[in-house]
Structure formats: structure tokens, C-alpha cells
Amino acid sequence: CAIDELRGAFSKRRQVGASEYAYISFLTVSQRRTLFMHARLTEKEFNQPYWRINEESCYWRDALFRALRELFSLFEYAPTILTSVKPEQYLH
């Protein structure tokens, strides 16, 4: 399932000891695309070599790192089982 793939890709446990650049280099193309799209970057940035994030002149680097931290946070507590039950149905 796509959610499981993303949960596995953006697990904080996977990041331990890896720099942001190294971490991004380990992502698959589809996972890296998810990261770039979450950062609201375009195909133009996605198609550039990702090693450019090591350059200070890389204008999309901060957005990419912010998106990476957001995805780590988002998937840290993502539920294992997704249901179609609306929250108001089980909060009462």
C-alpha cells in the first residue's frame, strides 16, 4: 500500500545517523517525487541533480529540508490501519 511505503520511507528511525543529503539519496524516485511535491517544488527542481542541495546557492534546498521534517513528523504517528469511519462517529 502507498501509505505503508511512505511510512517506511519517512520513518525517523531510518534517518538516524544520516545527513539530509544522504537520506534523500536513499529514497526511491517515487518517494523523492513525493518529497519534492510536498515541498511545492516543480518538475524543474525535481529534474535537477539532488546533490545540488549541498550548494549554498540552491534556492529550493530549505523548502526541501522543511518538507522532509514535515513528512517525518506526519508519519511518526500515522495509524497502521486506516478506516472510513469519520472521527465524529467514534468520539461520542
Describe this structure in words.
- By secondary structure, the chain is mainly alpha-helical.
- It has one domain (2-90).
- It contains 7 helices and no strands.
- The longest helix has 16 residues, at 61-76.
- The two termini are 30 Å apart.
- The model has no long low-confidence stretch (mean pLDDT 81).
Q: In summary, what is this structure?
A:
This protein has 92 residues and is mostly helical. It has helices spanning 2-9, 12-15, 20-26, 29-38, 43-46, 61-76, 87-90.
Q: How many distinct folded domains?
A: 1
State the major sheet.
none
Low-confidence stretches: none
Number of strands: 0
- Approximately how much helix is present in the residues? 55-70%
SSE-based structural type: mainly alpha
The topology string of helices and strands comes to HHHHHHH
Strand content of the residues, in percent?
A: under 5%
What is the gyration radius calculated from CA atoms? 15 Å
Number of helices: 7
Q: What average pLDDT do the residues reach?
A: 81
Protein name: Replication protein B
Organism: Escherichia coli
Compile the SSE list and pairings.
Layout: H1 2-9, H2 12-15, H3 20-26, H4 29-38, H5 43-46, H6 61-76, H7 87-90
Name the features.
92 residues; mainly alpha; elongated; Replication protein B
